Structure formats: structure tokens, C-alpha cells
What we know:
- Strands 10-11-13-14-15-16-17-18 form an 8-stranded mixed barrel, surrounded by 5 helices. The chain has a 5-stranded mixed beta sheet with strand order 6-7-5-8-9, sandwiched between helices.
- The protein is rod-shaped and about 165 Å long.
- The chain starts with a helix and ends in a 9-residue tail after the last strand.
- It is built from 21 helices and 18 strands.
- By secondary structure, it is an alpha/beta fold.
Amino acid sequence: MSLFKQLWLAILLLLTVVFAFSLAVSTLSARAYLEKQLSIKNSDNAAALALSLSQQGADDVLLELTLAAQFDTGYYQLIELTDPAGNSSIRREDTAAVSGAPQWFIRLFPIEAEPGVASLQAGWQQAGTLTLQSHSRYAYRELWRGSSRLAAVFLAGALIAGLISRAVVQRVLAPLNSVVEQSRALRERRFISIPEPATAEFKQLVSTMNNTSEHIQKVLSLGAQRLDRLQREAELDRVTGLRNRDPFLRVLDSMLQSDDVNATGALVLVRMTSLIELNETYGRKVIDSLLHDIGSALNLIVEEHSGWTACRLNGSDFALLAPREVDENALGMRVQHEIANVVDLHGFTEECALPGAALIYREGDRQSELLTRLDGALRTAHTEQGYTLSIAHPGNIPVTTAREEMQDWKRILRQAIDEERFYLEPFPVLDSDGELMHQEAFARLDWRDETMRAGRFLPWINRLQLSAELDRQLVQLALLTVETKARPVAVNLTVAAVVEDDFPDWLERQLMQHSEAAGRLWLEVPEAMAFRHFDNFRQLCLHCKRHGTRVGIEHVGHQLAQLGRLHDVGLDYMKVDAAFVRDIDKNPMNQTLLATLCTLGHSVGVKVIAEGVANAEETRALLRLGFDGVTGTGVTQGP
């Protein structure tokens, strides 16, 4: 029972007790007054009647007629005349039930008045004794009427008092709704703060809870800053601020093996010639300033797009990886142009060239083959003067125009959505004990006896703005799978889930229709999309929380400095990107980074899961670091 109902019942009980006691006291006082008045009346009437009869000479016939006439007036319950010996000579008594009030009231408040007694004289001798008792029905009637009016007044007062009390209680308990919402948010790992109410007891409680939320926010913020610092120390070139070669190649490898929209994109390589000669001529300090500005220019390009990353492959080679980009020529020219502007500002335009190479990578490509193609294209560009850009076309794939390719994919995907040809392929996510946490269900397309992986068609789904329709089909498939197999299923949502305004409402309707399955549904959004559209992502989480659906972020690790913003989201889990997991058993720097990430996640009740685990050595290393679960090609579920 709610606190409001308990307080209301307490007030109602108090008013009832007060009313009952007040009514009882008032009724008893009225009864005592009526009893006294009846006794006086009985005595006075008996004396007056006895005097009147004595003056008539106490004739027997006349006595009987007079007493009968007096009794017939209906005001008396008993009139009796006894002789001097005590024998009843005349007796008139009304034996009918007392009326004028309910019987329960008569039994509860009986009126017992003393009868009037007077002597009857015949000359100087006593002729008898007259006993007279007035009827009590009139007293009961008045007592009942008075009590009823008093009860009505009390009830009206109680009702008014109750309404006033209700308003006061509502006002006093108004901050309680905020306290309840805050406690619910804390239970859902949403560490929010609310204004402190004026009520002293609530103020102390809210202050304590706010302090807890602020502490968690501070822990998250400081932890995110520490993670960002560790990542910079481990992965970034100190001169340019760009990624070093090994971390960049791990990111590229994870993109090539990914099963999402990032599986296709562009890769650009630009070489700054004569760097050694410039160092010898102008000194390290001057050239380091040049390299720093080049790194800043490339990072500005990267910041415009989620998931992009730039690298200093070696002393003079700069690379930029652009997932989802389809125009490698335009991107390559832009990278060349930005670097050329920096070189020109430093006055070295005449002393170095900037040959470049670019290509489109696709799902299934090998890293070594891509680098070989880039290197060959770069050599071709290097033989020419100026800022030549060479496109590294694959030799085994027929070249089609972008327009033709887009028309083909539009036809395929439109038909696939209309005919519901997409399905889910599950992969196990296991906890530290080898038990199933959930099945991560990747989208697959059955087209002309061919199974297409998500990494192949998702980039085109995104470009053709069909993401929302695909998300709806995948969520419905996941809910049906949960209901059929009674196992938790995770679905990877696209950017539409946090961009389309009507998607959260549609999702909530689906969760309401499948209320039992909703508690076993896991939904995850890419890290880049979650932070880029953070307010929408928060709303999506709130909709899911109402139905017990778990929400997570996948591909975590590229924006660690943003983790402090998750304090009021209610996140359930994070999946760390495969780029940080690859060869983790041989990478002490990444071990430190991921161990800190696990500690930070666990401090706020968030599970941390590793993606792209390739072998048992990586699994053992990750579990030692504190990961709650693992998934990837090297993770299989036992019988």
C-alpha cells in the first residue's frame, strides 16, 4: 500500500474515532438531561393529579374515570393507584414497544427516568398511593433527532476536514514522486539529481541520494578522463596526435571483419616527400611543428564523421580510414588539400610533393592486399609531379559506375524488405562461466540462393535510407525468436533507431504487444551513433527500461572520453570493439586500458563484453582482466 493511502487511512481513522467519541459524549449528556426532565415531570404530574383526586373526595368510580381519562391522553406509560395496604386497585399500563427511534439506538442508550409517587387523601386519612410514569417514546424521538443532526454535522465536518487533509497531504508528499522517480532511476543505473524539497525528512533523503548520484557522475567522469589519457598514451603519436601504425591497423582489421555498416568505406594514403631533407635543413623543432599542424588538420576531418580515424603510418606517410564513405577520389583530394594548406602555411610548398592513393574497401577484403594495392598506387602517383592522386582499383572486380551500383542495390533491398527476406543468424555471447548470456543475432539476406552478410548490404541500406524499415523487421524477428526459443536475443540497431523520431514509440508498442519476450530482448547501438545523437539515445533507453528490455553500446573504445555522459542513461552493457581485443594476450598497454574500462563499468553496474574474440588465449586474457562476457569467431558454446 502506498504511503499516500496509508496517511489518508490514518487521517480517516483519526476523524472517525474523534467523531465516535464526540457523538457518544453528546448523546449520553442529552440522555441524562432527558432522564432528569422526565423524572421531574413524573413527580410534578403525580403530585398534581393526587391533589386533584383528593379534592374530589376519593370516590372509587370517580377515581377510575379520572385516571382512565388521564391515561388515554397517551402521554403516560404507567398510572397505578394502590390502597394503603399496598394492593393495586387501579392500574393502567402501555405495554407496546417503544417507538420514535431505531431499536438498536434504544438498546444502546436506554432512558430510565424515576416514576412520580404521591399520596392520595380522603379527609385526614390516606386513601392510597399514586404512581405515575410518563411515556419515554417522546424522549427517544428527541434524543434520536438530536443525535442524527449531530452526526450529520460531524460527518460534514469530517468530510471537509478530510478534503483539507488530503490537500495538505498531497502538498507535503508532492516531493515524494520525485524521490520515487530518483530511486527508480538509481535502480536502473540512471544517476540523476533532483531539487531538494522543503520537508526536512525528504530533504535529508534527497540530499543523500543526490550525493550518491553526484559521486557516481564524478567517478564516471574521472574514469573516462583516465581511460582517454591511457588510450592517448598507448595509441597516439606524440608529435601529430594521430594514431600510431599498430592501433590503426587493428582498427582497419576490425572494420574489414565487421558485420555492420562499417564493413565498407574508403582508405586514403598520402606521402610527404623530402621529410628527411627538411629535418636536416630546418631542424626537428620546425618540422615537428609542421607535423603537428598536419595532424590537427586530419583530426578536424575525422571529427566531422563518426568512426573515422587518421594515422601516421611512418615518418612521412599519413593515412585516413573512412567507414561508409563511397567517393574515394573526393576524400583523397580533400586529404591532400588539407595537408597541402599546412605545408603552404609553413612555406615548404616548393620543397616537397604530396602524392596520394585511395581505394574503396569492402567486406571480406584482406588488410595485406589493401595495403599492397595502396602502395602500388602511391608509387604510380609518386612518379608524377605535384599533388597527384592515384585510385587503387581492384583488379578482380569489374568497375561499375556509382549510379549503376546504387540502382542495383536499391532494387535488391527494396524487394528484400517487401518480401521479408531478411533473417537472423545467432552467435553466442558467453559469460565467465561459459554460460549463455544472450545470442547476438546478425542480419542476413537470402538473395538468389546466396546468403549475404550484413557487412555487405548494410552500407547500402544506410545510403538508401532504408535503415528504419530494416530495424523494424529485425526487432520483430528477434521478438518472435525469443518467444519461440525462450532465449535472450540481442539485435544490432542502425542509426535510424536514434535518428528517426517515431522509432522509440513504435518500439514501445511492439514491446507492449510482446510483454513476455521484451524482458529477454537486448538492443545495442554503435558507440559513434549513441554519442553523436545522445539525447535521442537516452530517450530510446527510457522507452526500453519501462518493459525490462536491456540496452547496450557496441564497438566501444573509440570515444572513451565520452563515457562520463552515460551517468543518466541506464546502460546495461558495453561491447568493446574488436580493435582493442585483437591479440590482447600480447598487448600490455591495451590490457591496462581494458582492465580500467572493466573497473569503471562495474562501478556503475554495467556489464562489459568483448567483441571479435578470435581464440582461447584472448578469451582467458579478457576474463582475467574482468570482462563479463566474450563473443567472436573463437567463442563456441559447449553442448
